[in-house]
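Quick one: Amino acid permease from Streptomyces similanensis, structure tokens please.
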Amino acid sequence: MPDLSAQPPGAPPTPVATPETATAGHTHTAPGGAGLRRGLKLRHIVFLGLAFMAPLAVFDTFGLVSEATDGHVPLAYLAVLVAVGLTALSYARMARRITSAGSVYTYAGKALGAPVGFLVGWSATLDYVLLPMLNALLAAIYMGAVLPAVPAWVWVLSTVVLCTALNLVGVRLAAKVNVALVIVQAGVAIAFLVFAVRAVLTHGRSFGTTGFDPATVGLPDLFGGASLLALSFLGFDAVSTLSEEAERPRRDIPRAILLIVAAAGVFFLAITYVMQTLFPDVSAVGDIVGASPQIARYIGGAAFQTVFVGGYLTAVLGCGLTQQMSAARLLFAMGRDGMLPRKVFGRVDPRTGVPAANVLVVGVIAASAVFLDLGSAASLINFGAYVAFAAVNVAVIGFWVRDRRAGRPEARGAAAAVLQLLLPALGLVVNVALWISLDTPAKVVGVVWALVGVAILALRSGGFRRPVRTPDLAE
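--- reply ---
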């Protein structure tokens, strides 16, 4: 594959905005001339990550997971938080080392080789590209609880169109919009928590070990329910795709990753603990999929249910913006490297600095939400999430091995072995266990998707006869 970064003889070198010298508004120019504009500060990145997962995402799958775990949603979140926390440390380490937009695709490519990087990135596209679809589906479910006469496809398409339009305008506008949206969501979530605590006390319930006792749930049921919850934390993973648009990526991306996981973990545990205490048996609510709007009505009446659903719509908009944004940038990184058609996926709009074609492709896929149900969509998305999480942990170990062989001091000693070998290995084991716990249809579709990636790789490498280019962005 030709090196597109080569210049004609005698031509002046093309300036590249490095992570250390980039400032707001400057462009990170990658091989091939396609680049993204830097302009995101730490607060923008954190709010984009929170908006991606949405503070109200905890309500999305509460009914499904409560049914699967026999009323142990808080314990399921705790299990996922262990996997996510260990993986977040690995993401933070990789984000500090590699500052390109490719996220897990680039991390795995740098550490384990370009073919592995592509296959991991391809598997990760399953969750990145399908998340906006899940988001549109949730919009239809929640709005259907308030306005059941309106067809679901109306909510799906209107959500997709609005998020696509805002993403085409530019990343800074999306970031500013998300700050306001996350604040609104946080306010609604806090109000829900207050009403729920009041309802627990009013109905004579007591706060104890409800939902946390591992002796009262089987391990397969616990991991089966927990396997659906990775999507609740995907905001920390998504911000790693914004490295080329961060003003100080080596500092701010790792900080944002850890801040997002810590804030979300505490919030999810608190909300689900109170909800599970109030409804130990979620079947009492009636509608398992739409349990949260019904619980909102139960604790605060019809007026609060309306406020709750309105707050959730802001979550849908914030999620849709950042999910589509991150998916478009992962496709951009793969297109820029020639692993996907460069003329389609490896280009940015010169006026807005946005990979516009990618945004439109993701929008079209999101519109397919009219054909899926919530459980199926969540399982499909989590297949790609656990592959990505496992791969990043392996990438950290791969770099540790490489650095030790090169005699680098940062890879020597007991502390390095713990941080770069033991913890990533533990994260790998937990993520693999959760991946195994996904339902069979999700694993079948995921494996088929991975095989399509192998076919693309074979095509791009001439039947594996030509080497695949490693992403040649600076570490």
